[in-house]
Amino acid sequence: VQLVESGGGSVQAGGSLRLSCAASGYTYTGSCMAWFRQVPGKEREVVATIDSGGATSYTDSVTGRFTISQDSAKNILYLQMKGLKPEDSAMYYCAARDLLRCGPTATHFLDVPDFKYWGQGTQVTVAS
After folding, report:
1. Which terminus of the chain is more solvent-facing, meaning fewer CB atoms within 10 Å of its CB: N or C?
2. CA–CA separation, 3 and 22 (whole Å)
């Protein structure tokens, strides 16, 4: 399994970015994928999750601003980010579970150890 993120960059506060994660060798059916983010000196935190059945979950700080989606035909995971704030600045990682699902409250209880596959990350910087 290989996950490759792209789409990061630098934007002004209030701007938008769309992150992509191209997955190869991964089976979407009966699975769960997610976006995490991490800033230096802090733990990696889950941002959003999506189940192969379509259920999504978001951490409170991004609800209403970020949208996670997937194109299973193209094997691509997306994170549409709008209304970006300086505190959204971080390295963003794509992650996937190994044939395990996640529900609509997944961001409340899933964490780094629950995901087996990881991308290399893409940097997002939001200037005030």
Report:
1. C
2. 6
In Å, how far from its chain's centre is CA 62? 11
Query: Nearest 5°: phi and psi at 98?
Result: -100, 90
pLDDT for the residue 83: 98
For 57-66, which contacts have Cβ atoms below 8 Å and span 24 or more sequence positions?
Answer: 57/102, 57/103, 57/104, 57/105, 57/106, 57/107, 57/108, 58/107, 59/107, 61/87, 62/88
Cβ contacts of 14 within 8 Å, gap of 6 or more: 83, 84
Q: Is the pLDDT of residue 72 over 90?
A: no
pLDDT value, residue 23? 95
pLDDT of residue 115: 97
